[in-house]
Amino acid sequence: MGRLFIVGCSGHGKVVADIALKQNKYKEILFLDDNPKSDSCMGISVAGSSTYEDIRPEDEVIVAIGNPSIRQRLQEQYEESGLKLATLIHPQAVIGTNVRIGKGTAIMAGAVINPDAAIGKGVIINTGATVDHDDVIGDYAHISVGAHISGTVTVGQSTWIGAGAVVSNNLCICDNVMIGAGAVVIRDIEEPGTYVGVPARKIR
Ligand SMILES: CC(C)(COP(=O)(O)OP(=O)(O)OC[C@H]1O[C@@H](n2cnc3c(N)ncnc32)[C@H](O)[C@@H]1OP(=O)(O)O)[C@@H](O)C(=O)NCCC(=O)NCCS
């Protein structure tokens, strides 16, 4: 196994690095960051910027940046250059039968993903979040800490479900939606925008 490059050494990058350390399978773990605050983070060196050129075919890369459009842009650049994208799953996450998980996705500690769910690429399923049976989570979506997605829900591409939000079963949330922390979604969401509250309503 080669090295793992984690792009972004923010708080999210640290959590991703922690999963990689626990997997104990990489020869070396390195950060890449365009604006690093120092030359190392958590004792892991920052090797260079996101355009670092010495990534080899046996190495893997994961983009650990919260902003979905930056995450998508960088992941697509690495894919187009033929680099291998890592998928990182914390050993204390629970992954059900027949769950599909895309490249570049990170699944944090305490997350539960139930059977037949499909998780896209470049997705974040954050600490303690749950994704229930038959859910479809679009590419570059983010299910924040402690959010709960009930069964047979579709979450669109680049949609961000805020911390502790709840989505009722059998709903569809379109692409590019922000659901505020603590919101409860009880109806389909068909227009991009920001939704907050109980029940969730559009604010912009
Ligand atoms: C929804 C959110 C994106 C809005 O942020 P914003 O665009 O900066 O909006 P503002 O803070 O200007 O708030 C706009 C209005 O919405 C209200 N509001 C904002 N977030 C809210 C929330 N989660 N629930 C209820 N009301 C909320 C504000 O009180 C404000 O109301 P007012 O106009 O009556 O004063 C943000 O508040 C939020 O919830 N982010 C989620 C963060 C998160 O989950 N992080 C997890 C990381 S793992």
Q: Layout of helices and strands, plus pairs?
A:
Elements: E1 3-7, H1 11-23, E2 28-32, E3 40-41, E4 44-48, E5 60-63, H2 68-80, E6 84-85, E7 88-89, E8 94-95, E9 100-101, E10 106-107, E11 112-113, E12 118-119, E13 124-125, E14 130-131, E15 136-137, E16 142-143, E17 148-149, E18 154-155, E19 160-161, E20 166-167, E21 172-173, E22 177-179, E23 184-185, E24 193-196, E25 201-202
Parallel strand pairs: 1-2, 1-5, 2-4, 5-6, 7-10, 8-11, 9-12, 10-13, 11-14, 12-15, 13-16, 14-17, 15-18, 16-19, 17-20, 18-21, 19-22, 20-23, 22-24
Antiparallel strand pairs: 3-4, 24-25
The chain binds coenzyme A (COA).
Residues 126, 144-145, 162-163, 178, 180-182, 194, 196-197, 203 line the site of coenzyme A.
Q: List the helices and strands in order.
A: EHEEEEHEEEEEEEEEEEEEEEEEEEE
CATH architecture of the largest domain: 3 Solenoid
CATH class of the largest domain: Mainly Beta
Strand content range = 25-35%
**Total discrete domains:** 2
CATH topology of the largest domain: UDP N-Acetylglucosamine Acyltransferase, domain 1
Largest sheet: 8 strands, mixed
Radius of gyration equals 17 Å
Overall 3D form = globular
- Helical stretch count? 2
Contiguous low-pLDDT stretches (5 residues minimum) are none
Strands, count: 25
Query: Which strands sit side by side, in order, in the main sheet?
Result: 7-10-13-16-19-22-24-25
List cofactors, ions and other ligands.
coenzyme A
Overall SS class:
alpha/beta
Indicate the percent of residues in helices: 10-25%
In CATH, the homologous superfamily of the largest domain goes by the name Hexapeptide repeat proteins
Note the gap between the termini.
Answer: 46 Å
